[in-house]
Amino acid sequence: MDDASRAVAKLTRERWEANAEYWVKVIRERRDRYRTELTDQAVLDAIGPCKGLRILDAGCGEGYLARALAAQGADVVGIDASQGLIDAAQDGPADEEPPGGPAGSVSFARASVDAMPVADQDFDLVVCNHLFSHLHDPSGAIHEFGRVLRSGGRLVILTLHPCFYIEDTEHGATGSVPAAQYFAARGVDQRFQVDGLESPSMITSWLRPLEFYSGTLRDAGFVIADLREPHPTAEQVENDPWWREGFPTAMFMLLVAERR
Ligand SMILES: C[S@@+](CC[C@H](N)C(=O)[O-])C[C@H]1O[C@@H](n2cnc3c(N)ncnc32)[C@H](O)[C@@H]1O
Q: 3-state DSSP call for residue 227?
């Protein structure tokens, strides 16, 4: 990592410490409809049955996804750069054990995803739920995921869609990205606005073109197995102005890559 990326990573960490309490509220009160009605299920569908899998939740935040996967019988390790969020994850509510089977396990540690205290080839699956747009240069993290996954293991990435995500406006957050900006690593500075709640700290979301992902994944020993674009159904768009006016197309993309 060069000096500029190190400085941005430090700033990102500080901003997330400032936003930790806000984030716990947004997630635990289920205030973010985009997740609860769309992307959470898309990520779970991409992961599929996970009983007995060893899973790394990279950039786990307050840990809701790690807990949900553990409740399905996975052994999950959550890693996040924010101490405030890791503290919240460690004190988090226990999800219900599914009927007819013992739950797996879940533990959390504070670390950066580009240098994790984890043995080589220790995991069957790495999931990055809303992480990548917070990494100024994700190349180091992608190589690190290649190191900790066993051969045949999967990397599941849900991140902002580089073609459609634009600066959040009163009228929504999807539109056409100007062609001249598409190939640059563009940063969008803004506070989160979720269900009327504004984050205390500004955050920069980084967007990169699709060829960044295909090239970096290939160089780190991955093969792309799937690309999905979770988007609202025609009924949601027709019947609900929240989807129709704010998010009629895909704001996120979901990549699944396999470690060779
Ligand atoms: C939008 S939040 C997503 C958190 C969680 N996955 C969720 O969906 O609620 C982005 C997370 O990335 C974490 N993060 C940012 N840079 C990181 C890094 N270099 N290493 C580990 N976590 C990082 C932040 O602390 C924050 O928890």
A: strand
The two tokens of residue 156 are: 């599941």
Give the atom of ligand 1 at the shortest distance from the alpha carbon of 203. Answer: 1
Residue 82 Cβ contacting ligand 1 at under 6 Å: yes
Full-model pTM:
0.95
Q: How far apart are the C-alpha atoms of 209 and 185, rounded to whole Å? A: 8
Give, for 182, the enclosing helix (H) or strand (E): helix 179-182
130 lines ligand 1 (CB under 6 A): yes
Nearest CA owner, ligand 1 atom 10: 131
User: What average pLDDT does the chain have?
Assistant: 94
Q: Quick one: which atom of ligand 1 is closest to the CA of 35?
A: 8
pLDDT digits (tens, 9 = 90+) for 4-47: 888 999 999 999 999 999 999 999 999 999 999 999 999 999 99
Question: Which structural domain range is residue 214 located in?
Answer: 3-259
Q: Which two tokens stand for residue 20?
A: 């930790």
Return the CATH number at 63.
3.40.50.150
Q: How many domains are there within the chain? A: 1
